[in-house]
Amino acid sequence: MATELHETISMAKQERHKNLFLNYRNLNKFPVELLKDEGLQFLERLYMKRNSLTTLPDNLAQKLPNLIELYLHSNNIVIIPEAIGNLARLQSLDLSNNALQFLCPEIGRLKSLRHLRLSNNQLKCLPPEIGDLQDLETLDVSRNQLVSLPDRLHRCTSLQNLTADHNLLSHVPRQLCWLHRLNQLSMAANRLTFLPLDLGRSRELQFVFVDNNVDLKGLPSYLYNKVIGCSGCGVSAQVFVGEALGEALGEALGDALGEALVGLPAEVKVLGSETDNVVPLEEIAMRTLHCIYQQRPTNLNLLPPITLPKSLLDLLQFPLGHCHRCSQTMFTIIYPKLFPLRDTALAGVHRRTTVSFVAYCCSSRCLRTFDLQG
Question: Can you tell which superkingdom this protein's organism belongs to (predicted)?
């Protein structure tokens, strides 16, 4: 086996191969032949799937500087060296089916990276620096132990496909709704109880899969005309009414709507109804400030400080959502309207679920006039 490996690498050096296949070689160390002398300066694609590697050499980028694709699927890799960030040309990195417990921040230096696959590892968190990957198109972090996703993930402005199935996620950062190129979002088999108000508002987002989140009972009405997967959602027998805003609100809204609103963001201070004709002053002030900021071609962080707490300043930059009827921005109040899926045209498609679509409106007028199919 060692002789065959040596011959394969020697031939690759002599013939200046751009692709090198070292899959199924039972390697427990990175081959030193790849790192001798000047290495393989011309190599662009390295396949080392289904070996027994536990780490990567620190001088990988020095010896293989032109790597575009690196496939390390199904090894025993526990840690990735910080030097991984020196692979300036790397576009595809597959670390699926390994034993990673930690991902170094230097991953954010891979400015050319377009595809990152980290499924079936032991990751409990992702570094914020992953948000620096502005060319990233595909991110697969399924089958890990993630309890949250980085807020800075919205800076991956090229992201088209995000897969985070089979984790421990309890919420979806609303900042993800600002990923205007995102086409497919899959977060099946997590612990989700609530989805961002604006999820599905982007025309580009066409596929949303949240199957087997048993406590998830409400879907934003924006998802009504999308391809969705919600099998096994809302089947939990646990009663949540009133958990978000108190028992009194649960009784006023009704059990079904109360359960659909479990997990509402803490910024929601008021739930409006058809009889509430006056919008609270704080909400009016926030909408006015947002209009002022929208008219100025300046980053919010560069504006003169004003006497608002940081939480509200952050809210100005990333509002709760937009009215599902008129697109008015919303900050501290929502007017929800429930549409049980079983009563819609999709009832025959989605059978094993008890979820409802929820329209989030900005006023009692929009609430009264909203039509799910209009």
Answer: Eukaryota
Model confidence at 299: pLDDT above 80: no
CB-facing half-sphere around the CA of 256: CA atoms within 13 A = 13
Question: What's at 151, amino acid-wise?
Answer: D
Contact 56, 32 (CB under 8 A): no
Instruction: Give the DSSP H or E segment for 310.
Output: helix 310-317
Question: Does an H or E element contain 33, and which?
Answer: none
pLDDT of residue 120: 98
Is the predicted pLDDT of residue 133 greater than 80, yes or no?
Answer: yes
- Are the C-beta atoms of residues 187 and 172 closer than 8 Å to each other? yes
Is the per-residue pLDDT at 248 higher than 50? no
SS3 239: coil
Instruction: Tell me what pLDDT residue 339 has.
Output: 93
Task: Extract the tokens encoding 187.
Answer: 């977060």
Whether 272 shows a pLDDT value over 80: the answer reads: yes
From CA 88, how far away is CA 67, in angstroms rounded?
8
Average pLDDT, the chain: 89
pLDDT, residue 1, reads: 58
C-alpha 223: how far from chain center: 16
Q: Are 73 and 50 in contact (CB under 8 A)?
A: yes
Instruction: Quote the radius of gyration of the chain (alpha carbons, Å).
Output: 25
Structure-token pair, residue 93: 């990195």
Q: Whats the size of the chain, residue-wise?
A: 374
Give mean pLDDT, residues 149-155: 94
Beta-carbon count within 10 A of 104 CB: 17
In eight-state DSSP terms, residue 215 is T
In this predicted structure, the answer to whether residue 167 has a pLDDT above a threshold of 50 is: yes
Q: Tokens 């600002």 — which residue?
A: 178
The amino acid occupying position 358 is V
Distance CA 136, CA 111 (A): 8
CA separation (Å) from 97 to 17, 100, 144, 162? 27, 9, 10, 18
Residues 6+ apart with CB under 8 A from 305: none
Cα 142 to Cα 140: distance, rounded to the nearest angstrom? 6
H or E element that contains 202: none
Determine the pLDDT at residue 304: 54
CA pseudo-torsion sign 333, 337, 342, 345: negative
Return d(Cα 197, Cα 175) in angstroms, integer. 11
